[in-house]
Amino acid sequence: MRKITTIKKKKIAVPKDSICGWVYNDTVKEHFMYPKNFLTNDEEYDADGVGMVGSPACGDMMMVWIKVDKKSQKIKECKWRTFGCASAIASTSMMSVMATEKGGMELNKAIYLKPEQIVDRLGGLPDRKFHCSVLGQEALKEAVEDYLKHAKNSKQK
Amino acid sequence: MKKYIYLDYAATTPIDENVIKLINKTNTLFYGNPGSLHESGRLAKAQIEKSREEISNHLNTSPDEIIFTGSGTESDNLAILGIAHAHKQHGKHIIISTIEHKAVLESALRLKDEGFEVSFAPVDKNGILDIGSFKKLLQKDTILVSIMYANNEIGTIQPIKEISEILRPIKQKTGYPLFHTDACQAAGVLSLNVNDLGVDLLTINGSKIYGPKGVGCLYVKKGINLEPQILGGGQEKNKRSGTENISLIVGFAKALTIATRKQESENIRLKQLQNYLIDKIQKTIPKAYLNGHITKRLPNNINFSFSGIEGEAMILLLDQAKIYCSTGSACSSSDLSPSHVLLATGLALELAHGSLRITLGRKTTKKDLDTMVDELAKIINFLRKISTIKV
Prior knowledge:
CATH architecture of chain A: Alpha-Beta Complex
CATH superfamily of the largest domain in chain B: Type I PLP-dependent aspartate aminotransferase-like (Major domain)
CATH class of chain A: Alpha Beta
CATH class of the largest domain in chain B: Alpha Beta
Number of helices of chain A: 6
Oligomer: heterodimer
CATH architecture of the largest domain in chain B: 3-Layer(aba) Sandwich
Order of helices and strands of chain B: EHHEHEHEHEHEHEEHEEHEHHEH
């Protein structure tokens, strides 16, 4: 005869990271909840270049302000603001870190920064978030171009 | 202190404890196939018929007008597709509102692909059906009108009686158009008396009334034929095949009975909480706009848009604070487009992206709402600080 075992009251096991874990990984979460380098007051910020991408209507809009080291042609500071979802905020924050770390990114590298590089550093994003929310690099590119345009103009003067 | 604050009752409700007990008991006692001839089957069948009668009483109709299904979505599909297919010789035009649940909307779009003509009746800026525009959409060949009783996102209550009054004289001549209403959100809150409402078909389900998920029913007025969408053993008078889920049906009926019993007192309590929360949000958070109608709305629904922020970010931060709500933002939807309901009310895209739906229920207390607003204010302040859009 089969032994009958009584079922004791057990806590239901909950899978930690798979199903009920966060939509985003820990790095994304960190940059979303504690974003780095965002700019609170742009009126008092004397930027060398400014760039913008997106619109309120499409749900994502980023602005980037940069300061450039004239000698080395590297980004000294990269500030930003984002209207958008968690991955839009996190990816812009990560971008600002990448642009300023290790003494700053060279301008010609910043112009060619790819969304894939940002996503890689974030340790991945859900597929559906990739194309719509990683837009910060476009604002950065615009900011660099804005700086270069002004630098050229002032040289001509 | 609660471990978390659940404010998403319109998404689904927790199951009433008495309903859980009854479901478990039914599962143990009545496992026979209701289609079987032996006693085990007959006992199971009796449980279903008892539940059918219970539900029909709440709808003020007769038991043979109730078809059990697997969900509210399935009932909506059966109503729209089933009626259109069975009555197409009388006409190929149907009307639905612009704020229908996707279960109705997608069924209507399927019909459009099949060659039916579908008209969308607009709503005003408060999310209430525009009766004047609706009247103009009626055609000689309109066979079906489907307007939801109460909206799931903004909670607006639609003028169902008024619509059936408009349809009545037309129907007296030709028998058409038939009138369906999705009452999933209205169940347990508003009267489901189908005679008063004047509807021919009505959808309700278990998961919004503290009953089980995976069960719903469709009321179909006697004498109205519809094409089954699930074929097989001919259960539910050939309208919906598949072995009946006895315990869920029994639990569903019980949940509706309990919800009806609590309806009056809960409505009063929720209305007070609703007013309190709306007032508190408007006083605490600048640039907060209430979506939907101020009075013609379900007592448990609050829907706000906050300018300058995006809904998914807001929901995730609330989740982090153990407060569970939902949003009509594009980022949170599977098709990456913002809520069609909010857009139908003419809301600007930016505000549709920044919407928050808070829905209250039996366990909600005033203290929960105080905690909620405190957290929400912090979150909105934070998101606005990093937002490109300055408010």
